[in-house]
Amino acid sequence: MAFQLKGASVTIGDRQVLTEIDCMLESGRWISLIGRTGAGKSTLAKLLKGLVPDFKGEYWINGQPASRNRRGQMQVLPQVGFVFQYPEHQIFETTVYRELSFSLRMRGAGTEEIDKAISRVLPLVGLAEEMLPLSPLQLSGGQKRRIAIASVLISDPQLLILDEPTAALDPLSRRLLLDMLKNWQAEGKGLRSILSISHAMEDIAQYSDEVLVMNGGRLVGHLSANELFLHRSDLLEGSGLPLPDYIELLKLMEQLSGRPIQIDSCREEDVLAAVETVWQDRRNSYAE
């Protein structure tokens, strides 16, 4: 399922928040949305969910105009899931079961359908059925976050929007959560897309297929993660964004060796392997 904006502009009060945004989010892609604070990332994400009723421009889903009400205002899109920053703060039900079943109950689903959906989503987020009767207050912070994410995944959105999904998590918890989301996307067999707002550049380089770069309410770049981090770091510098540490190491090794390092992947393990090879060649040259 493709989600496309054409010339989308948003004004809030007397401030232009988004200006002439043109982008296409295609099925089966992990797309990161980056930019400094105030660049317009959250507004763009809310627009894609249908949470910005009035805007200039067009919004198309699979070649069809997105749903609007009789007054021409955007409506919330059920095929787009939205996980806000610190999603555990959004939990409000009395038990884990009621929290997970809430959206399905609101759609009129029966007990059998709800139970099947919960059984399907729990393994995806690494949680056991024994937790279902518990109060969310009894859970750890990490468990609460997984429950909150599961309550969105249970509706099987075609586009999942994540607003800083790893905020305040330690490195191991962050990696486990992102791997979980990557597995959920892969199980969709090319039909599920993720749009992730993040400031964690290492995570962006590691998990993204594509990156949207925003600056001052404008989309200044939409390119593959490999292209951005390996060849177009100027877009990051111009937007006040850093390179991942290991990409900085790659650049330093290129300076020391006096030649570019040929690599087509910005993933950490691939970059470090290339750097190690050049470093070993450099050490061997000293020994000769």
TrEMBL record:
Lineage: Bacteria, Bacillati, Bacillota, Bacilli, Bacillales
Subcellular location: Cell membrane
Membrane topology designation: Peripheral membrane protein
Matches recorded under InterPro entries: AAA+_ATPase, ABC_transporter-like_ATP-bd, ABC_transporter-like_CS, ABC_transpr_CbiO/EcfA_su, ECF_ABC_transporter_ATP-bd, P-loop_NTPase
Signal peptide segment: none
SMART domains found in the cross-reference section: AAA
Keyword ATP-binding: yes
Domain ABC transporter: 3-241
Family to which this protein belongs: Belongs to the ABC transporter superfamily.
PANTHER family documented for this protein: ENERGY-COUPLING FACTOR TRANSPORTER ATP-BINDING PROTEIN ECFA2, HEAVY METAL TRANSPORTER
Keywords on record: ATP-binding, Cell membrane, Membrane, Nucleotide-binding, Translocase, Transport
Gene3D superfamilies referenced in this protein's UniProt entry, alphabetically: P-loop containing nucleotide triphosphate hydrolases
Main location: membrane
Name assigned to this protein: Energy-coupling factor transporter ATP-binding protein EcfA2
Alphabetical list of Pfam families matching this protein: ABC_tran
GO molecular function: ATP binding
